[in-house]
Write a structure and sequence with these properties.
Elements: E1 7-11, E2 25-29, E3 32-37, H1 45-53, E4 58-62, H2 66-76, H3 87-103, H4 105-108, H5 112-131, H6 135-140, H7 149-166, H8 172-184, H9 201-210, H10 218-225, H11 247-264, H12 273-280, H13 286-296
Antiparallel strand pairs: 1-4, 2-3
Helix pairs in contact: 3-5, 3-7, 5-8, 7-8, 7-11, 7-13, 8-10, 8-11
The structure holds fe (ii) ion (2 copies).
Amino acid sequence: MRDPDSFFPIRIDTLRAGAPTLFDVFVLVGDHHVHYFLGSDAIDDERLSALKSKGVRKLYVESRNETSFLRYLVNGLDRLRDPSLAIGIRGSIAQDVILTTIENLPHNLESESAYRTTEKQMERVVDFISQEPKGFAAIFEGTRPATDLTEHTLNVLILSLKLACESGVHVTKELMDLGTGALLHDLAAQIDPHGSDADPAHLGRTLQMLEDKAYISGGALTLIENHEERGDRLGYPNKKRLSRLPLTQQILNLCNDFDRTCSQNKRPPADGMKPYFIERVGEFELIHLQKLGQILTSKI
Ligand SMILES: [Fe+2]
Ligand SMILES: [Fe+2]
C-alpha cells in the first residue's frame, strides 16, 4: 500500500484542460512538492502548456487521493471514443493511457481491485486498435527505437494487437489475453533487456511475481511463459517449436523479438523490417513477417 502522506507521479498528458480534477496536483521543485493546480479549479490549458514547454513530464498527486485519480483516469478513457476529437489527438491519448498503465503496473498488481483499473485501460486500448480504422497508425506515428522497458512494452503491445487483428483474431478474450501478456511479459526484467546480453532469468522472475495473482488470466500467463520461444527450438525456456504454438503466441514472440532487435540496433521500428527479415526469416512464419512489414509502413 502507498503511504497516505506520500506522493505518486502522474504523466502530465493524463490531465485534461478545462475540467476540475477533484484532487490537488503538485510539481516537484528541488525536494519539495509545490501546489500547482487545486482540485476544485479547472485545469488551465496555458499553465499546462507552460509546464510542457519547460520539459516537465511528471506531476504529483498525494497518495490519499489515489482513488480519485484512478476514477479521473478511467473517465478520461471515454475520450478515446469521442469522434469529435481528431484521430491524432486520440492516438496520443491512447499512448498516454498505455504508458500510464505500464508505469502503474507494480502498484496495480498489488490487489485485485487495483488490477481492475489496468484491465479497464486495456479494454479501451484493445477497442481503439481493433475498432478504429486509423487507431494503430495514430499511436504508432513517430514511434522511436525503445530506449527502456516502458517504451519496449508499449511497442510490443500495440504491434501485437494490430498484427493479431490483421491476422484474423477478433475474439475479445484472445485480444485481452494478448494485450495483458504483452503488458506483463518483461515485468521483472531488471537490467536493460535490450543490451547485447538479454537476461534469460527475467522470465522466471516475472512468472514468480505473477504466480499468486489469481486474477490474471491463465491465457495471459501462458503467453508470458512462452514469450522467448522462437524458430525451431531456438528460444527458451523449453526450446519449443514456435510454429506449433497458438497464433497469438507466435504474434507476441515475433513482435517482442522484432522490437528488441530494433532497440539493440537503434532502428526506428518503422524502418526495421528489411534488416530484421534478412536476419530472422526462418524463425517466424513468413506471412506474419510480411504482415508486420505492411503494418509498419502503415499500408494496413
Ligand atoms: Fe522477455
Ligand atoms: Fe520483451
